[in-house]
């Protein structure tokens, strides 16, 4: 194996072998308590995930860095399908900058959000969970809590087309009420950066929210949060299958745009319906 490839495979997030089923089983009782008593999760639609085939699970982030709905979906997956059914989640490269978060993420089945790793996971026979909206989605203002926000990121569409896998959307309501994002000051910071102000630790934060939540009360910046005990509703939606697949389809910009708009609009409709049903 070339030295560079070997180096990448040994870096956190760049290997499929860091997932630790025993560690996940160890956390299941804690997740169950949070699921049943803290967030009182109500869920539906799990029959839309095929028993055997791999899929691309596409969801919207909510609730700040705590992202409680993501962990509740993970609990549902492992409780229903077992910890051995292969699934990996794509995590932002920033997660791998801190050794502790890198280790925890890897043991839970997270891999770095890079096309190479997503393709490797699918080729291994695993399903892949992706949150295209990333940090902008996590900290979107509270008034936008019922909006699907992918921030224009279309990589998941190209991945589904190239690897010929169906998309299974997952939506949720409630998790974005576990904190209250008042505004995002990122554009102001971006202007200051362009005027010469360096980023803290040399990292572009991508968002710079002001939010109300625990433990800070009023927080400025993308600080970690303790989610409030709000009921979370999740729904696994019917599969989305496109008309054509393959490398040519994934390279067709207008077709990728159309597929992106289709997924976003269908997920928004499902989210609107879920909100109305509460």
From TrEMBL:
Does this UniProt record's set of keywords contain Calcium?
A: no
From the UniProt annotation, give the residues forming the signal peptide.
none
- Give the matching InterPro entries: P_lipid/glycerol_AcTrfase_prd, Plipid/glycerol_acylTrfase
The answer to whether keyword Transport applies is no
Annotated Phospholipid/glycerol acyltransferase domain residues: 40-171
Q: Which UniProt keywords apply?
A: Acyltransferase, Transferase
The identity of this protein, by name, is Acyltransferase family protein
* Pfam families cross-referenced by the UniProt entry: Acyltransferase (PF01553)
Q: Which organism is it from?
A: Plectonema radiosum NIES-515
Please list the GO terms describing molecular function. Answer: acyltransferase activity
């Amino acid at each position: 194996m070339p030295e560079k490839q070997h180096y990448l495979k040994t870096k956190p997030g760049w290997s499929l072998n860091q997932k630790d089923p025993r560690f996940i089983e160890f956390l299941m009782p804690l997740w169950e308590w949070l699921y049943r008593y803290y967030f009182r999760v109500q869920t539906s639609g799990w029959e839309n995930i095929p028993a055997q085939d791999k899929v691309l699970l596409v969801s919207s982030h909510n609730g700040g860095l705590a992202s409680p709905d993501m962990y509740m979906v993970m609990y549902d997956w492992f409780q229903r399908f077992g910890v051995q059914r292969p699934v990996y989640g794509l995590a932002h490269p920033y997660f791998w900058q801190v050794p502790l978060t890198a280790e925890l993420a890897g043991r839970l089945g997270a891999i770095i959000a890079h096309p190479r790793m997503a393709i490797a996971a699918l080729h291994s026979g695993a399903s892949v969970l992706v949150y295209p909206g990333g940090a902008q989605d996590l900290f979107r203002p509270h008034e936008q809590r019922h909006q699907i926000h992918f921030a224009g990121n279309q990589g998941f569409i190209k991945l589904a087309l190239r690897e010929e896998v169906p998309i299974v959307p997952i939506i949720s309501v409630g998790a974005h009420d576990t904190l209250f994002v008042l505004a995002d000051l990122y554009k102001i910071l971006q202007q200051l950066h362009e005027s010469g102000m360096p980023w803290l630790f040399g990292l572009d934060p991508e968002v710079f929210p002001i939010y109300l939540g625990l433990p800070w009360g009023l927080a400025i910046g993308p600080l970690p949060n303790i989610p409030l005990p709000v009921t979370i509703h999740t729904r696994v939606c019917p599969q989305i299958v496109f008309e054509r697949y393959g490398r040519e389809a994934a390279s067709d910009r207008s077709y990728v745009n159309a597929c992106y708009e289709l997924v976003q609009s269908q997920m928004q409709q499902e989210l609107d319906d879920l909100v109305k049903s509460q």
